[in-house]
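User: Can you recover a sequence for this backbone? Please restate the input before giving your answer.

Assistant: Of course. Working from this structure:
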């Protein structure tokens, strides 16, 4: 089976004051279709840097990244943006919804860029909201929803284009523990429905919802283990 994500000796340096500061120091990794991976590690270990590379928001300064069969390591920004739109759904810690728009309009945004007509946009947005348990909130704006609901809207937006991978950088970082569990269960359902999910968390009890746990330390992989005590009982949604 070929991997969706193949990293070979990925390096990243940030250049500051003419000096390169190494942050990722040779990350080699394969992630296969339908995996549910938690990326952990102390603050400053390079998790967000790696996620931004995985999500084609940034490029490595060394090594090779093959995403779904395409070498994206040295792609120009415009091509990278196209790949990102097709292959990647990204959820951030800060929810990043547009406050003036309803839940359905926020979820439908990527479809505007994809040139989908309005009727189909709304139909698909409502279907995506149903997948995250918010079918009855399609007309609500951010100020009419809880933090957990808003993050679920952001997840619905991230999956609207059926991306090859769903990436989330500390998606539960702004949520209380009960709401965090609800959000992790949504990710579990999305994975059970056939998607590949990679998320960052620094909380051990959140990582227990993933099937595989990769730990970074100081820019290298410290450990990479299958979680035999995976929590959550994902319900198939289709
Ligand atoms: P984590 O998400 O694990 O906390 P990051 O990937 O955000 O870690 O950061 C790793 C290291 O890289 C930190 O030392 C951070 O200060 C540095 N860093 C992150 N982004 C930049 C940037 N844009 N420019 C310079 N240094 C950065
Ligand atoms: Mg981070």
């Amino acid at each position: 089976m070929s991997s969706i994500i193949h990293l070979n000796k990925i390096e990243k340096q940030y250049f500051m004051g003419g000096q390169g500061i190494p942050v990722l120091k040779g990350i080699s990794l394969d992630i296969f279709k339908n995996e549910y991976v938690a990326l952990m590690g102390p603050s400053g270990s390079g998790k967000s840097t790696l996620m931004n590379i995985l999500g084609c928001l940034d490029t490595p300064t060394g090594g090779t990244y093959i995403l779904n069969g395409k070498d994206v390591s040295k792609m120009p920004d415009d091509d990278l943006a196209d790949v990102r739109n097709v292959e990647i759904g990204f959820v951030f810690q800060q929810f990043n919804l547009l406050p003036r728009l309803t839940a359905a309009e926020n979820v439908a945004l990527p479809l505007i860029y994809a040139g989908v007509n309005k009727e189909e946009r709304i139909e698909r947005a409502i279907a995506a909201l149903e997948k995250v348990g918010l079918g009855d909130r399609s007309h609500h704006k951010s100020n009419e929803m809880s933090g957990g609901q808003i993050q679920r809207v952001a997840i619905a937006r991230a999956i609207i284009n059926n991306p090859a991978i769903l990436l989330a950088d500390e998606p539960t970082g702004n949520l209380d523990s009960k709401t965090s569990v609800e959000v992790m269960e949504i990710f579990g359902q999305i994975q059970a429905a056939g998607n590949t999910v990679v998320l960052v968390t620094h909380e051990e009890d959140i990582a227990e919802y993933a099937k595989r746990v990769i730990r970074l330390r100081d820019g290298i992989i410290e450990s990479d283990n299958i979680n035999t005590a995976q929590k959550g009982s994902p319900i198939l949604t289709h």
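That completes the design. The first strand starts at residue 5 and ends at 16.
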